[in-house]
Amino acid sequence: MHWVFLGGYCLVFLALIIGTVLWRGKKRRSRAPFPDNAKLLRGPGEALRRKLAELDERITCDLLAAFIAPIVVGGALAWIAARWSGPAQVFGLIAVMTGLLVGLVLVIRHLVVAIERWRNTWLGYFGERIVAEALEPLKADGFHIFHDVPAGDATNPFNIDHVIVGPWGVFAVQTKTRRKGRARAGFAEDQIIYDGHVLAYPWGEDRHGLDRAAEQAVWLQAWLEQLLGTHVPVQPILTFPGWSVISRARGTVIVLNPKQIPSAVALRGETVLDDDQIHLIVSRLDNRCRDVEF
């Protein structure tokens, strides 16, 4: 009987803690000094930041489930041992223990998957932050930079990691943060070689990110042309933070290390956008990216 009491006490205690935290959070939110309609610009990796917050909640729930399950099962075992006897008792105890083991395996598996997703998401988020810092010098040259720009439509939404706007055009930057693997003979472990068509990594070749970067630039170009009523070239850039990038040929997509982007973008060329066009583009991008709420 004392096991049942202990299990019930633990459940009530946890429920009180969770309820108090939620109530206090809601109360503090209602006393925020900001107006209800205050919205900030999206920062680098905003979508990934939100995903990290969701994964944090998911991992917390899994940990609570893993903690509560043995307590509940302990209470059930104590109740069965006290109330049942004979074969029914044995069968009940086996069934409850089997359920506990299966439940724990599922929870642990779910938890491991969530933690792995959290690590991968954090890696991508950190990579976008690195690229954002590398782009900062462009502001001194009169460029405007937007991060995590919402794009697409309701059926196919996506985000453009970074958009750069200046007199020499618009640049759509796609960030790919990849872990390093074992290098083949003749390849440096931190180097990517681009031949204008394929990316050669230390472990093999693929087009990881190239097609996606080009597709996002096409969407942005179409959106800007609809906005301005004239052709606006958008140059796709694919960047790999933490990697040394060697481009042996220029393809549709420019592939660079983040530190190489400012010099490539600020290289003076033919003026494509006048001040009025830049102002309009910046204004619309500002509206599109201003959705971060308290």
Give a structural overview:
The protein is an alpha/beta fold. The chain has 2 domains: 2-130, no CATH class; 138-292, 3-Layer(aba) Sandwich (Trna Endonuclease, Chain: A, domain 1), CATH 3.40.1350. The protein is 53% helix and 18% strand. It is built from 6 helices and 11 strands. The chain has helices at residues 2-30, 46-83, 86-135, 210-228, 261-266, 275-289, and strands spanning 40-41, 144-152, 157-166, 169-175, 191-194, 199-201, 204-206, 234-239, 244-247, 254-256, 290-292. The strands form 3 sheets. Strands 2-3-4-8-10 form a 5-stranded mixed β-sheet, sandwiched between helices. A 4-stranded mixed β-sheet has the order 7-6-5-9, with no helix packed on it. A two-stranded antiparallel ribbon has the order 1-11. A hairpin with a 4-residue loop joins strand 5 (191-194) and strand 6 (199-201). Helix 1 (2-30) runs antiparallel to helix 2 (46-83) and helix 2 (46-83) runs antiparallel to helix 3. The chain is elongated, with a radius of gyration of 27 Å. The mean pLDDT is 85.
